[in-house]
C-alpha cells in the first residue's frame, strides 16, 4: 500500500481495539478494488470520545466504524442519525461528508437483506419471534418492524430484558411487541 496526498482515511474506533480484524479486511478490499484508501484501528478511551469525533472531522476521515464501548455514547457527538440508528439507539458506522457526521446502524439492514436474499423472507404483515434481547437482537427487532412486521414476540433468558426491549420497541414504533417468558406454558401455541 502506498500512501499518497489524496489517500482516503478510514478506521474503526473502540477500546480496546487490538483484537479487531477490520483493518486487514478493509485494506485487502481497498487493494483488490484499486481504491486509494487506508483503514486503521483507532483506540479511543471513553473519556476521549468527543475529541476523537472532532478529530474525524478535522483530519478529514471519510468515515469510521464503531465498536464497543462507543456504539451508544457516540450518538451525542454526531450531527445526524439514520432512522435505524435513532430507533436502535446505537451506531456502528459514521460517515463524514463535508464535516457533517452521520451515524448509521448497518446491522438492521444487513439482517433484513440476508433474510430476503438467503431465505426469500420478508417480515411484511407477519408475526415474528426473536430469541434474545441484547444489542444484536435490538437491531433485529427494529429491522423487522421497519420491514413491516405486524407483531414481534421477544424472549430472553433474562425476562426483564425481553420486557424492556418489547416496551421500547412498541413505544417507539406502535408495532405490537410482546415479551414472552422463556419456556412459559403456551409458548408453542403463541408462536404457531
Can you offer a commentary on this structure?
This protein has 192 residues and is α/β, with parallel strands linked by helices. It has helices at residues 22-33, 49-58, 83-88, 106-119, 135-146, 159-173, 187-191; strands at residues 8-14, 37-43, 63-66, 80-81, 93-97, 100-104, 127-131, 151-155, 176-179. A hairpin with a 2-residue loop joins β5 and β6 (100-104). α4 crosses α5 (135-146). It is elongated, with a radius of gyration of 19 Å. The mean pLDDT is 92.
Query: Helical amount among residues, as a percent range?
Result: 25-40%
Q: Number of helical segments?
A: 7
- Taken in chain order, the helices and strands follow as EHEHEEHEEHEHEHEH
Overall outline: elongated
Major β-sheet strand ordering = 2-1-3-5-6-4
Describe the largest sheet.
Answer: 6 strands, mixed
- What oligomeric state best describes the polypeptide chains here? single chain
Average pLDDT across residues?
92
Number of strands: 9
Q: Which regions are unreliable across 5 or more consecutive residues at pLDDT < 50?
A: none
Gyration radius over CA: 19 Å
Q: What structural category arises from helix and sheet content?
A: alpha/beta
Distance between the termini: 55 Å
User: How much of the polypeptide forms β-strand, as a percent range?
Assistant: 15-25%
Short description:
The protein has 192 residues and is of the alpha/beta class.
Search tags:
elongated, alpha/beta, three-stranded parallel sheet, 192 residues, six-stranded mixed sheet
Helix/strand layout:
Blueprint (H helix, E strand, L loop, with lengths): L7 E7 L7 H12 L3 E7 L5 H10 L4 E4 L13 E2 L1 H6 L4 E5 L2 E5 L1 H14 L7 E5 L3 H12 L4 E5 L3 H15 L2 E4 L7 H5 L1
Parallel strand pairs: 1-2, 1-3, 4-6, 7-8, 8-9
Antiparallel strand pairs: 3-5, 5-6
